[in-house]
Amino acid sequence: MKTIFEKTNGNDGINLTDKKLNLDFLPSEFVRTGEIGLPKLSELDVMRHYKELSDRNFCIEKGFYPLGSCTMKYNPKVNEMLASLEGFNIHPSVDDDMAQGSLELMYKLQQALLEVTGMDAITLQPSAGAHGEMTGMMIIKKYFDTIGEKRTKVIIPDSAHGTNPASAKMSGFEIVEIKSNEKGQVDINALKSVLGPDVAAIMLTNPNTLGIFEEKVEEISKIMHENGSLLYYDGANFNAIMGYTNPKLMGFDVVHLNLHKTFATPHGGGGPGAGPVGVVDKLRDYLPAPVIEFDGKKYYRNYNIKHSIGSVKDFCGNFSVLVKAYAYILMMGKNLKKASENAVLNANYLKEKLKKYYELPYDEPCMHEFVITGEKQKHENGVSTLNIAKAMMDGNAHPPTVYFPLIVHEAMMIEPTESENKEVLDKFVELMIKIANECKTNPEEMLTAPHTTPVKKIDEVTAARHPDLKYTD
């Protein structure tokens, strides 16, 4: 087999100055013979170019980012510095003896997450919230298979995150959807009507995607457990209850956490993600292997998990993200509870300010987020929620999640997070009032928004039917 390098002398070392490129085995049309053709620019010109591109992008450091159900909070930069410390930059395949510092950090992070969730055992492997969901559902499936019960169905409320039915389906379950009641919560009668010996679990987000706490969660837990079923806690909204209650107290058996939502690690492209999964004691033998343990003297990776579903992620998960989450926990300490408190306070403050100008489908005290609608604006002035969202961009605010949850028409899901101060919230209220007024007085302006962003309003119908997939300069 030919290699791209060939020796020029007898030196067997790795110094590439002793080698030359050998491209004879490549077809001639793939071999460049002339100049590469890049423009000759100064470093200053290049830096200005990329800075200008960066300025076009909206980010949490640039303005308010109330992306409901996604918790776009500020990520402390000190966490990035700590995650890049040289001592953490070791190969994941080294022996446990050479990784005691890293293993200790993961073990202590596990203990912290167990304390706030109330769970008995945990894995740090999953690389995202949805990945954690699927891991949890695989654990539930393996559990019932192991004890010899054929349970094929998972109950999911109609207000659930879309990843819930996807995760359950990919784990081999049939989905049973139940409707919400007039308060936006699980309808107990609807739940009872679909129960049977074939139901493995219910997947709940509490508070749910409407930002409303499930008042009857303990009754739901009792109903499910009496049926021999388990409860799965979608921890996407855990940042609303942390320190005040926990999934174990509510009766849940499995929980995943989104570290980017509750523990201030980067979200999306700034990640990668992490979605640890905690379980009650009877499910600990089903966790992915390895789990990090401590024998009193040494931290080690335990691969001997009796009924393990197997590994769901290389090694022990996205380590740099785990470092950032642990740093945040150490930095916050008992103020983790304060973070939830402020998130709930900020959301209720905005809800009360905005409900005079937009419809509020469920006028209940909310938790960390709430849902208003553009139904009135659309009906009276022809301005849709999408138009309102685009207009927010002209006011230096990122649009919230729109058209979700699906049970609310023209929905806008708003989550201010605990990171924002009252000045920022008041500016957002002013912007939303201005938009509501302009929907009445100047709807044409709303229909053509945004006007100040680098990319203006697109023809979404044409874009969907005739996408331009070619790259152009």
Structural summary, described in words:
There is one protein chain. With 473 residues, the protein is of the alpha/beta class. It has 2 domains: 90-332, Aspartate Aminotransferase, domain 2, CATH 3.40.640; 338-465, Aspartate Aminotransferase, domain 1 (Alpha-Beta Complex). Helices cover 36% and strands 12% of the residues. The protein contains 16 helices and 14 strands. It has helices at 43-56, 77-83, 100-117, 129-146, 163-170, 188-194, 217-226, 247-250, 259-262, 319-332, 335-354, 375-381, 385-394, 422-441, 443-447, 460-465; strands at 5-7, 19-21, 121-123, 153-157, 174-178, 199-205, 230-235, 254-257, 277-279, 291-294, 299-302, 370-373, 401-402, 411-414. The strands form 4 sheets. The chain has a 7-stranded mixed beta sheet, with helices on both faces. It has a 3-stranded antiparallel beta sheet with strand order 12-14-13, covered by helices on one side. It has a two-stranded antiparallel ribbon with strand order 1-2. Helix 2 (77-83) packs across helix 10 and helix 4 packs across helix 5 (163-170). The longest helix is centred in the last third of the chain and has 20 residues, at 335-354.
Number of strands: 14
- Trace the largest sheet across and list its strands: 3-9-8-7-6-4-5
Mean pLDDT: 92
Q: Indicate the proportion of strand residues.
A: 5-15%
Low-confidence stretches: 7-14
CATH C-level class of the largest domain is Alpha Beta
Rounded radius of gyration (Å): 26 Å
Order of helices and strands: EEHHHEHEHEHEHEHEHEEEHHEHHEEHHH
- Which structural class should the secondary elements be placed in? alpha/beta
User: What percentage of residues falls in helices of 4 or more residues?
Assistant: 25-40%
CATH superfamily heading of the largest domain:
Type I PLP-dependent aspartate aminotransferase-like (Major domain)
Please give the alpha-carbon distance between the first and last residues.
39 Å
